[in-house]
Design a protein that fits this description.
Elements: E1 2-10, E2 16-25, H1 41-48, E3 56-61, E4 64-65, H2 74-78, H3 96-106, H4 111-124
Antiparallel strand pairs: 1-2, 1-3, 3-4
Helix pairs in contact: 3-4
Length: 137
């Protein structure tokens, strides 16, 4: 569940990215986020991921008010959500397998489970045969 209640986001440059945004996306619902360049799409996703904080208003995810979440809890919160960025930010000196495995290694997953989960994910997107390749720059 994601709920925005009168959310505003203004950057230090005084550019207003979001102004009074309110919506609710219930558990199991799917939505498409579209709009012209500069409409605030990336800002909205950054607020959900706590990459940025709102200037005003409430951002609530799974009944947790993100405005009240202390900085030290952010990494634990982020482990429960997933984002795919346009800029994929791959490490070009590591294989496809190693890039996908990195978040699991950081989370402390055991070696055997990492291998199983990474191969399952790569298989799901048709990249299992490329697990030893380096990403193309």
């Amino acid at each position: 569940m994601i709920r925005f209640e009168q959310v505003y986001k203004r950057y230090e440059s005084q550019q207003e990215a979001l102004s009074g945004l309110s919506f609710e996306l219930l558990t199991g619902e799917m939505a498409f986020l579209t709009g012209h360049s500069g409409a605030g799409k990336s800002t909205l996703l950054k607020l959900i991921a706590l990459i940025e904080r709102s200037s005003h208003g409430q951002v609530i995810v799974n009944n947790q008010n993100l405005n009240r979440l202390p900085k030290w809890k952010i990494p634990y919160y982020r482990r429960k959500i997933g984002l795919v960025f346009q800029e994929h930010n791959l490490l070009h000196d590591r294989t496809v397998f190693d890039n996908v495995a990195l978040p699991l290694i950081i989370a402390g997953e055991n070696h055997r489970e990492i291998g199983r989960r990474v191969r399952a994910a790569l298989d799901k997107v048709g990249l299992l045969g490329k697990e030893r390749n380096l990403p193309i720059a």
